[in-house]
Amino acid sequence: MRLFAIVVLLFMLFILSACTGHHDAAEFDLVKLKEAAEQLFNAPENGNRIENQWWPAEIKDLKPEAIMKSEKGIYIKLDSFFVEESGLFIPSPGTTIEPGAHSDPSYVLLGEGIYSYYVTG
Questions:
Q1: Rounded-to-integer distance, Cα 78 and Cα 48, Å
Q2: pTM
């Protein structure tokens, strides 16, 4: 019985540590991130991914799982769990983003033109 309780507790900790939604602006130095992220728009791509050798130090410090570039902008994936994903998004110049928590992906403006994004899958 004790082993079962330990297994259940470990499983619950695993689930609770999963992707939890949008990030908070207080977690980041948005001014430094904005400057660093601008370099990513000029970085070479491998498919739609930007390899970590091109990540500026301020971005590497976030320990992203991946960085992707699309027509809309740069996605810095910070967390993922099965089909859920969250991170930071910097739109391409001239791209308009409709912030909202009820779309998929959903975007929340943190400041300095940087958004938190969340994909529920």
A1: 17
A2: 0.79
Question: Which residues does 109 contact at the CB level (< 8 Å), separation at least 6?
Answer: 97, 99, 115
CB–CB of 15/9 below 8 Å?
no
- Domain limits for position 74: 19-119
Distance CA 116, CA 94 (A): 18
Domain presence at residue 44: yes
Q: How many domains in the chain?
A: 1
User: CB of 115 within 8 A of CB of 97?
Assistant: yes
Residue 14 is assigned to a structural domain of this protein:
no
- Name which residue leads in pLDDT, 9 or 21: 21
